[in-house]
Amino acid sequence: MRKSSVRLAAALAAVALVVTGCSSSTKTSSTAADKQLEIFTWWASGGEKAGLDAMTSVFTTANPNTKFINASVAGGAGVNAKAVLASRLEANNPPDSFQAHAGMELDGYVKSGKLEDLTSLYASEGWDKVFPADLLKTLTVGGKIYSVPVNIHRANVLWWNPATATKAGITTAPTTLDEFFADLAKFKAIGIPGIALAGKGDWAIAQLMDYLLLATMGADKYEGLFKGTTSWTGPEVAAALVNFQKALSFGNKDAGNLDWPDAGKLITSGKAGFFIMGDWASAQWQSDGLKLGTDYTWAAAPGTTNIYQWLSDSFTLPIGAKDRNAALAWLKVCGSKAGQDAFNPKKGSISVRTDSDLTLYDSYLQAAAAQWKTDRLVGSTVHGVNGNNALMAAFDAAAGKYLSGGAKDNAGLAKDLAAAYVAGQA
Ligand code: GAL
């Protein structure tokens, strides 16, 4: 071998070592470990599982000898899964890859030393060229990239059933909060709750509050809440909480027993008027055989028409993953065009990749992909962008406590939210 080709071979071996992280002495055990792959999410049923299954089949086609172990833990927004995950990480028994949100949630896992740096995988897969630079920033800590995003969801979407709206005399979607509250009263007048509420696990009520904070004070002041420039106990939050209180007063009384798929059924069965929920609702309804545009339709949530309150699910490589090579193969599928275009049309989200094939997506998702490019982007609090797990847990609990206390103590809620923000800074 000529000197230059020896050097080239050595360089290639070094690259392979960085990407797989395996020396030849560990190769044998990693081949054995590659016989299985354990993936941890909260996508256990409906549209969420349909999305995961679609991406899993891209993986199993490419890796037919690797057994896929689906370690999902049911419960919207990961309210149950995150506790299980925390104890597994604590016990140094991580899954091979787990779901984490882009933004401060991911940052928390990185800062507690739980994740491997994936920067070299980005270079070898060319992802730095097909993922938006702004999104990459939310996956980067100290100059290193720590996860692979699979999608973008929108949290601030208004959903309704056209037949129910017609009955209530509502012909166009409300675009302002005033119009929204007027429509809630119209639903009430035909004897149904104006808004479907899901109180189980607190997060969906917190998401409604998060949206009303944004819609009431606007994007700049809202972002200031997480930078310390808008006070949690000031007049902007107080006004938003009055709107929150008002919205809750139009809700179903059994909210505490319902997670989001059950609350969504109130809409499609004509038993409630509006639903403010992330766009995973559409995928859920489609997995039940319902049709977008006929059985349900959508608009940007009132008061946030040109604002895209986003979140992104991503997959990680935990330090100590037992099937590390299989996990790397999984992450490659997560970032690939084939993986993302199989997953997202079923999950109700858009692909992160700028080369995604939009003909595979429905009319809602095509519109979302266009708006993602032109709208003002603002992160979701309940789904990890604005705060870490500590902030989110306290934020959700504050909203849940307010609802179960009869939605009366606005000053107490503002104080609890201020404390949630502080908890997230620790
Ligand atoms: C979010 C997650 C979404 C969806 C939703 C409801 O946190 O990012 O993918 O699963 O929860 O469970």
CATH topology of the largest domain: D-Maltodextrin-Binding Protein, domain 2
Low-confidence stretches: 1-33
Q: How far apart are the first and last residues' alpha carbons, in Å? A: 57 Å
List of distinct ligands in this structure: beta-D-galactopyranose
Biggest sheet: strands, sense, closure? 5 strands, mixed
Domain count: the total is 2
CATH class of the largest domain: Alpha Beta
Strand-residue proportion:
5-15%
CATH superfamily of the largest domain: Periplasmic binding protein-like II
Provide a descriptive summary of the structure in words:
The chain is built from 19 helices and 13 strands. The protein is α/β, with parallel strands linked by helices. A hairpin with a 2-residue loop joins strand 4 and strand 5. Helix 3 crosses helix 14 and helix 18 runs antiparallel to helix 19. The N terminus is likely disordered. The site of beta-D-galactopyranose has 13 residues, from loops.
Q: What labels would you give this structure?
A:
three-stranded mixed sheet; 426 residues; 2 domains; D-Maltodextrin-Binding Protein, domain 2; globular; alpha/beta; binds beta-D-galactopyranose; single chain; five-stranded mixed sheet; disordered N terminus
Write the layout of secondary structure elements.
Elements: H1 3-20, H2 24-33, E1 36-40, H3 46-62, E2 67-70, H4 81-90, E3 97-101, H5 104-111, H6 119-125, H7 127-130, H8 133-137, E4 140-141, E5 144-145, E6 148-149, E7 153-154, E8 157-160, H9 162-167, H10 177-189, H11 203-225, H12 235-249, H13 260-268, E9 274-277, H14 280-287, E10 297-300, E11 307-311, E12 313-315, H15 324-335, H16 337-347, H17 363-374, E13 376-379, H18 389-404, H19 410-425
Parallel strand pairs: 1-2, 1-3, 11-13
Antiparallel strand pairs: 3-12, 4-5, 6-12, 7-11, 8-9, 8-10
Helix pairs in contact: 3-14, 3-16, 11-12, 11-18, 12-19, 18-19
Bound molecules: beta-D-galactopyranose.
